[in-house]
Design goal:
The protein is mainly alpha-helical. It is about 50% helix and about 0% strand. Helix 1 packs across helix 7 and helix 3 crosses helix 7. The relative contact order is 0.16.
């Protein structure tokens, strides 16, 4: 259990997972229910338990359509789609931790690589 990651998900999403009463209305409304490994209500519950890494490795974060049907259906305004988006953002940010720092670029230059590709990559990954 990683309660620090849980706190980050709640901070990014602006949602308290403790409000969920696990009624399943969000999952019943989900148009992509059959394609998801974890359903919206299960997502909320796993974040509550601090199992964010498990969710980050799941295909469900990219299977979510972000249609917000679950948000509309929730009687407690838990907003599962925002939680899914927060986990996705944490995963994407973690992937970005392995990029080169500006001072490392010179030692890794390939003379065959066009300057435009280097500039483009630097702009993309330095934000």
């Amino acid at each position: 259990m990683d309660m620090e990651l849980r706190r980050r998900v709640e901070e990014i999403s602006g949602v308290s997972v403790l409000k969920c009463m696990r009624c399943g209305k969000c999952s019943a409304t989900c148009p992509n229910y059959d394609e998801m490994e974890y359903r919206p209500h299960e997502f909320v519950y796993l974040v509550e338990k601090g199992e964010v890494e498990k969710l980050a490795e799941s295909k469900s974060i990219f299977t979510c359509l972000s249609c917000m049907a679950c948000v509309e259906r929730c009687p407690r305004q838990v907003e599962p789609a925002k939680i899914i988006e927060a986990v996705k953002l944490i995963k994407i940010r973690k992937q970005g931790e392995n990029h080169l720092k500006p001072e490392q670029v010179a030692e890794n230059l390939d003379p065959e690589l066009p300057a435009q590709a280097i500039t483009s990559a630097f702009r993309k990954y330095s934000k």
